Amino acid sequence: MLEYKFAGAAPGLRVVEGHEIAGYASIFGQRDRGGDTVVAGAYAASLARLAASGDQVRMLWQHDPSQPIGVWDEVSEDAVGLYVKGRLLPDVARAREAQALLAAGAVDGLSIGYRTLRAEKLPGGGRRLLELDLWEVSLVTFPMQSTARIDRKSDAAQDIALLTAKLSAARAALAQL
Q: CA angle, 171 as apex, 168 and 176 as ends, to 5°?
């Protein structure tokens, strides 16, 4: 069963030159509105399988498989979370609409579409997601991870926001020890 996790574009997600977007689709160690927490390494095997097969994570509009709007040129894990960098395709009408909505601030979220391979139930509800089969990352209106939003600030402010996210992820990792 394919699941979706709406994560606003993390601190540092930005629109560059109109059609390029970059940032975090998922931040490790942060509980989302559904009670789930993705752990570092949860995407590693899936990304390795995709790379080995020559396949890629799809960029969709609002999780609609009939509406691809661009390509993710880079999808990787780091200490903060799942980093994505890609391009909206200007020859696609919906991508032009998405770019206009992003520029206006009307849409500012990212969401992952995946299948859970391994998870642990958390006391009090929710899950700790240990291994995920990542299918797609969508631009969405309503993100699940409220701390992850497209950042339209200056480069210095983006650096501070990214550092803050990294510190939060490190604190969450230490709390689990």
A: 130
What structural domains does the chain harbor? 3-175 (3.20.16)
* Tokens, residue 146: 């409220």
Q: Burial code of 50-82, b = ≥16 C-beta within 10 A, e = fewer?
A: beeeeeebbbbbbbeeebbbbebeebebeebbb
| Model confidence pTM above 0.70 | yes
DSSP 173: H
For residue range 105-138, list pLDDT tens digits in order. Answer: 888 888 899 999 999 999 989 999 999 999 999 9
Q: Which residues pair with 13 in a beta bridge?
A: 150
Nearest to 134 by CA among 8, 33, 45, 12: 45
91 DSSP assignment: T
Q: Which residue, chain included where needed, has tokens 């540092």?
A: 12
E-strand stretches of 9-126 = 14-16, 20-27, 37-38, 58-61, 64-77, 81-88, 109-121
The rounded Cα 86 to chain-centroid distance in angstroms is 12
Structural contact between residues 37 and 90, judged by C-beta atoms closer than 8 angstroms: no
pLDDT digits (tens, 9 = 90+) for 69-101: 999 999 999 999 999 999 999 999 999 999 999
Amino acid in the structure at residue 38? V
